[in-house]
Design brief:
The protein is extended, with a radius of gyration of 20 Å. Helix 4 packs antiparallel against helix 5 (about 95-105). It contains 6 helices and 2 strands. The mean pLDDT is about 90. With about 130 residues, the protein is of the alpha+beta class.
Length: about 130
């Protein structure tokens, strides 16, 4: 998805997008395996990406601390953006913003009943 769209959000995983011809072409060019450098015990969250272009150029990148992991947590802004994207299927914007505010000020909430209700039930009709 990232190669095709440069951005990956919830909407990219709808059946028609995942099954599109463009995505299938990309998938057929991907080879996945455990890289010899990552067979060590402490490399579970690491990844090495090797890309070879049609012209023969090779690019490589190793990630040992993926964004959003415990060793590289998301910034508050990126976390909010990801929450809004993921929750957009079940929450309206007003409830999403209210949850974000309540989570940011969680220590000051006297009661979390409303917050938990919205989180568990959502505010949009379920499909």
């Amino acid at each position: 998805m990232a190669l095709s769209n440069r951005n990956v959000g919830v909407e990219n995983f709808e059946d028609e997008k995942v099954d599109s011809e463009d995505i299938r072409k990309i998938i057929n060019k991907i080879e996945m395996y455990i890289h010899r450098e990552l067979k060590e015990r402490n490399t579970i969250s690491s990844a090495i990406i090797d890309i070879e272009t049609k012209g023969g150029k090779k690019y490589s990148c190793r990630i040992d601390k993926p964004s959003g992991s415990g060793r590289s947590p998301l910034t508050w802004e990126r976390l909010v953006s990801k929450f809004k994207d993921c929750s957009s299927l079940v929450l309206n914007e007003e409830d999403s913003n209210s949850i974000i505010t309540n989570i940011r000020d969680l220590e000051r909430l006297s009661n979390i009943k409303k917050l938990m209700g919205t989180l568990s039930l959502g505010s949009k009709d379920h499909i």
